[in-house]
Amino acid sequence: MDQLSDRINSLPISATLAMAAKARELKEQGIDVIGLSLGEPDFNTPEFIKAAAIQAVEDNYNAYTPVDGYAELKQAICQKFQRDNQLTYQPNQVVVSTGAKQSIANVAMVLLNPGDEVLLPAPYWVSYSAIATLAEAESVVIPSSIESDFKITPEQLEAAITPKTKLIIFNSPNNPSGTIYTEAEYRALAKVLEKYPNIYILSDEIYEHINYGEKPFSFAAIENMYDRTITVNGVAKAFAMTGWRIGYIGAPAWIAKACNKMQGQITSGANCIAQRATIAALEAPVSAIQYMVDEFRNRRSLIIDLLRTIPGLTVNEPQGAFYVFPDVSYYFGKSIQGQLIENADDFALFLLEHAHVATVSGTAFGAPDCLRISYAASEAQIREALSRMAKVLG
Ligand code: GLU
How far apart, in whole angstroms, are the C-alpha atoms of residue 273 and residue 50? Predict the structure, then answer.
């Protein structure tokens, strides 16, 4: 441990991946754990995407790709941005990476200097703060709660800005809360940012297609924000392609160029077969994946109904993504089955040990009163998990 760098020693373990690993470990011991911790669609990758990958293997796509992605893929990404987000990007503004996580890390590495501040409207995805730490920047959390539907206000944003603020990370639909900012809400936040031209905006839109009514609005579509916004997306969530690892950005050309340079020294281009498959995914009409969204919608209703029968849990109705984020603070300071629950970490651990249900504590998401439950699981698993939770909490 002493020999390891300060960089790695100060880096927290990814709470989402850690919980998934813990659940896997218990399963290997023969314990029937229901995993509702990982944000991962339980569908198979659609056949037409698999076929494109098989074809790519047959066609001998095996060599290094351009560092920033195949030209055809970047073209498909530009068309997707135009079609779905009314955003005009040229291929030199696009960089394809090994998952949206790498896209975000690239942006952090090329924009942040030690001591810069990164604003994180909470709740925020666990890796944003860890990536900021890796870039030697400081995370500044802007809190929210279930009462404000997990949204921050322009006043809060303004109050959090300092001369050191360099980046703000928006994520709508949000992981973990499922919250979607409306166009008007985003425009009100942009009004504040207008006054601070040195602040950049990373808009993580990975859950874009998984929404239940309110179509998410792209931050870069605000005219005077386009030149300061990096739009991050990928195919993992919407196309059930988590393991294929393809993410991408649309950004000002100078930022894209810097990300290309960064990636060229760390990983080179993303996997060639996955890139070919992604062309098929992005060129298909969005209706091709609607069946998954419809299924997530049904599961959302189911899990909310079941959660509302458990006393002490307060739950809002998420508008997108596939997580519910109940406030569980009612249980803090109470003993259940002889075990004292002091915080959300204890609560998540209690559920894992006593109900064999894996969830993720809200602490790592900057919302220590809450618990993230993923409903990217079958209806039967959701029913069983919630019935176990009701039993141990009742
Ligand atoms: N983004 C997913 C989640 O939040 C996958 C795990 C991860 O990369 O954090 O569960």
Answer: 10
Do 355 and 388 touch, CB atoms closer than 8 A?
A: yes
Q: Is the CB of 373 under 6 A from ligand 1?
A: no
Q: What angle do CA 327, 332, 333 make, to 5 degrees?
A: 165
Q: Is 326 in the pocket of ligand 1 (CB under 6 A)?
A: no
> Which residue has a Cα nearest atom 9 of ligand 1?
16
pTM of the model: 0.96
pLDDT digits (tens, 9 = 90+) for 20-34: 888 889 999 999 999
CA 92 to chain centre: 25
**Contact in structure between 210 and 173 (CB atoms under 8 Å):** yes
Asked if residue 372 lies in contact with residue 47, where contact means CB atoms within 8 angstroms, the answer is no
Asked if residue 20 lies in contact with residue 357, where contact means CB atoms within 8 angstroms, the answer is no
CA 270 – CA 263 distance, rounded (Å): 9
Spell out the domains of the chain, with CATH numbers in brackets: 6-44+289-393 (3.90.1150.10), 47-285 (3.40.640.10)
**Token reading at 105:** 């890390």
Q: Are 166 and 107 in contact (CB under 8 A)?
A: no
**pLDDT band, residue 214 (cuts 50/70/90):** confident
Pocket test residue of 11, 14, 16 for ligand 1, highest count of atoms within 8 A of CB: 16
* pLDDT at res. 1: 64
CA distances from residue 55 to 69, 204, 244, 255, 274 in whole angstroms, order as listed: 18, 31, 16, 33, 11
The 10s digit of each residue's pLDDT in 173-193 is: 999 999 999 999 999 999 999
Q: Is any atom of ligand 1 closer than 6 Å to the C-beta of 175? A: yes
pLDDT tens profile 44-73: 999 999 999 999 999 999 999 999 999 999
Q: How far is the CA of 38 from the centre of ligand 1 (A)?
A: 6
